[in-house]
Amino acid sequence: MTKIISFESSADETSVAIVEDGHVVLSNSVATQINSHQRFGGIVPEVASRHHIEWITRVLNDALKTADVKPNELDAVAVTYGPGLVGSLLVGLMGAKTFALAHNLPVIPVNHLAGHIAAANFNQSVQYPALALMVSGGHTELVLMRKENQFEVIGETRDDAAGESFDKVGRLLNLPYPAGKTIDEMAHRGQATIKFPTAMAHEDNYDFSFSGLKSAVINYVHHADQKGEQINQNDLATSFQNAVVDALIGRTKRALENFSVKSFILAGGVAANSQLREELTILLNDFSETIFIPVPIRYTGDNAAMIGAAGYWNYKQKIFADLDLNTDPGLDFDLLQL
Ligand code: KG4
Ligand code: ZN
């Protein structure tokens, strides 16, 4: 049994978890700062790092207590070193290194995006080759994994990330940040009355683009404003969400047709979207050789348990870091290819 304690602080959640063998979550303590950032409509980096400093020891103690695990029962310390906000990443990294030094444990460097994908193992064991749709606030990628812990980005967004487009539309409609969940709920109450463009539907690749859709939504709202017309926000939410989901489904379908994979993983904050989950479930009915493994909803947003899951992949391959490990705010998958 391998017990890994993991630290995540790349954006606005401070989190520490203890995970056994990469898939059994013994504890996952998360402190969120959403309330502090809501009035600014986004994360304020300075505020975020100060919150992390305030919370990290409390979250660490809570994770140890909840799991009922003593430091001497642990095998390693996993930590997110990128991508993310440098000031936020630094707090988790310092916490993890200090804990590792104090208890004489090895440090495992973890890519936050690998963490999102590895959280699929909390649903069921991933079989390879696998394809992952990674949709978060900062990233939208189709990632091919020919084997465990190996990542090939076959498609990505050329502009906004899927989650970012939800948040920007939310801002336009004066919804609280982050707006993904609220728009998801509003979309259920509305009708698809507005025809927005589905980005790049005809292009011969696996890339995404959401900026055209965002502009179309902005134009629609401004036109209505100018004419003094009241817009139906629920209808707008439905129409917008349809366009995002269509784009994600279209590219995914193409990738599934061209790469025959045993598992299809849906990961990242936007993986909580109910319409996306439903439509992917239907799509996967046509691919009988492929099991659909969406990350369980409670692990779709940023959390340390997912870092423990990806940390275990590295642990098995003996990928450890020295105590001079630094943050890498722009880290992507390219650097992880083995
Ligand atoms: O992965 P995550 O927690 O943080 C990043 O690493 O970016 O993703 C956060 C993003 C936000 O943009 C949020 O609006 C979006 O996930 N999100 C959703 C839903 N829940 C969260 N988007 C659409 N539908 C949802 N239900
Ligand atoms: Zn994330």
Automatic annotation (TrEMBL):
PROSITE patterns documented for this protein: GLYCOPROTEASE (PS01016)
Cofactor(s) listed in the protein's UniProt record: Fe(2+)
Family in the record: Belongs to the KAE1 / TsaD family.
Cofactor, how bound (note): Binds 1 Fe(2+) ion per subunit.
SUPFAM superfamilies with a match to the protein in the record: Actin-like ATPase domain
Locations listed in the record: Cytoplasm
Gene: tsaD
Keywords: Acyltransferase, Cytoplasm, Iron, Metal-binding, Transferase, tRNA processing
Organism annotation: Leuconostoc litchii
GO biological process, one term: tRNA threonylcarbamoyladenosine modification
Main location: cytoplasm
UniProt: substrate binding residues: 134-138, 167, 180, 184, 273
Domain Gcp-like: 25-308
Record's protein name: tRNA N6-adenosine threonylcarbamoyltransferase
